[in-house]
Amino acid sequence: MATDTSKYKFNLKFYEHLGMSVIQKLPQPEAKFDLYFLAYDSPNALSHSNHWSDRQGIIELTHNYGTENDPDYTIANGNSDPGRGFGHVCISVDNIQAACQRIPEAGYAFQKKLSDGRMRHIAFALDPDSYWVEIISNNKAEDTEDIKETDPSTYRMNHTMLRVKDHTKSLEFYQDILGMSLLRTSESPSSKFNLYFLGYVPGANNDVNTSPLEGVLELTWNYGTEKDPDFKYHDGNSDPQGFGHIAISVDDLDAACNRFDEKGVRWKKRLSDGRMKNVAFVLDPDGYWIEVVQNERLKPRANW
After folding, report:
1. What is the C-alpha to C-alpha distance for residues 298 and 304, in angstroms, rounded to an integer?
2. Which residues, listed in sequence order, are joined to residue 136 by a DSSP beta bridge?
3. How far apart are CA 126 and CA 128, in angstroms?
4. β-strand 59-64 against 123-126: which pairing, if any?
5. Are 41 and 154 in contact (CB under 8 A)?
6. Which one of 35, 161, 218, 243 is CB 3.0 to 4.6 Å from 87, fit for a cystine?
7. In this predicted model, what pLDDT tens digit does every residue of 230-253 receive, in sequence order?
8. H/E element holding 143?
9. Which active-site residues does the annotation give?
10. What pTM was estimated for this model as a whole?
11. Low-confidence ranges of the chain (pLDDT < 50)
């Protein structure tokens, strides 16, 4: 069954305009959906030419056949109730003023322009489904104000942001269970929230400049949510649907899943469940889904 990507609600052209490429497509016609894996893949990219499972900065877009023809179809972008949870993805760019100028020139909109509010060093673009895409700079914004050019081949798929109820439980899970390191912490007591940036960076000690990196996870904790027994974030997989999951690739999928069992994780899908025997899903403390796949460079397993 063929589908017309030019009509997709998420519109691949938006992410291609940001410099990303489709590095893998996994059609699932029997289930009436396709998966598109996008990443930065120019010779300047951190993971140029790598298999999609051997990269840290990837966006997976899922297209369910027919949604592009439904005028009433919408998604929950994660930033308003009742679907609040997932916040945004983020790209880091070379010259942020020039990079942001390209967005309205191509017909796309902003949630927050550089000139809006107090934070003049970040912007948020809106993709065609209204997901937020944060834009940050690898260089100091004050140093690039007069630069009129930008090179999308130097951009990075920097991070994904999730809101968490209890920062202590979440940090323990992502560090102890998933093996991430705490790269950087940003505390905002006057606004009553903290940001925690985690990733797979050996030897990191909470003092890393994260803007040049890919595959970072940002956790946002709003003070006091951990004290409310009825408070809960939306995982994006029940109505209203939108965000699906984050994913990690591992050196040995069977051994990793055995270790997760020993650690007492909550499972959404074990390797033995269902038809897909090459993927598993664990749940974090807020119920967000985390896909676990084999890094095919380290140990070939699936023919994809």
Report:
1. 14
2. 92
3. 7
4. unpaired
5. no
6. 161
7. 999 999 999 999 999 999 999 999
8. none
9. 134
10. 0.95
11. 1-10
